[in-house]
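Lab notebook, bench 4. Continuing the backlog of folding jobs that were queued last week. Each job is logged with the same field layout so the records can be merged later without manual cleanup. Today's entry covers Site-2 protease family protein, a 198-residue chain. Filled in by technician R.K.

JOB TYPE: sequence-to-structure
TARGET: Site-2 protease family protein
LENGTH: 198
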Amino acid sequence: MYYSYRYSRERQDIIVAVLGLTLAFFIVIVRSSRVFSAAVAALALGESLLITLTAFLLHEMSHRYFARSYGGIAYFRLWPLGLVLALVTSVIGIIFAAPGAVNIGGIYRRDQVGKVALAGPGANIAMSVVFLMAYLLAGHAGIVSPILQELSELNAWFALFNMIPVPPLDGQKVLSWDIRAFGATLAIALILFLILIV
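JOB STATUS: finished
OUTPUT FIELD FOLLOWS
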């Protein structure tokens, strides 16, 4: 049973973060396109939204779900500066993808802290595998295949980056809890990422 504490602006913060980060990814994808058309824009928008929902939002909501399942206080809060940085950096072809995060309180046991931290990269790994399987099933033809590959690659990258054992990233909390869980998760994320970029 989790605390009933609610951050009154959480839903609004989530919507703003998702829309802003989707726009940032859209800018990067469109900039990398050789041609621009309504069809390209529609595909770029769809891909950008899927990246944001799976690589970012699902990651954060996984932290939130597991924290609350342990009786903790957990809510998403927008970081306006992070959102501005995401939009500004997207113009030069990279993204500082940190428009907000789940704030967590009331959890003190090391194993619970570690499992809550692991939930985010774990969700990214799961989505990377799902998109990789879809990519393999779709074959190498058509416009969908490269999008599936990019979705898988970016989810693997989000998992890999977040497993760096440096505060405030998830890897530090996972390593403090269980070195085996840390090593296994890091290895899986790295293998997935290398498979997708080679």
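OBSERVATION: The longest helix spans residues 38-69.
SIGNED: R.K.
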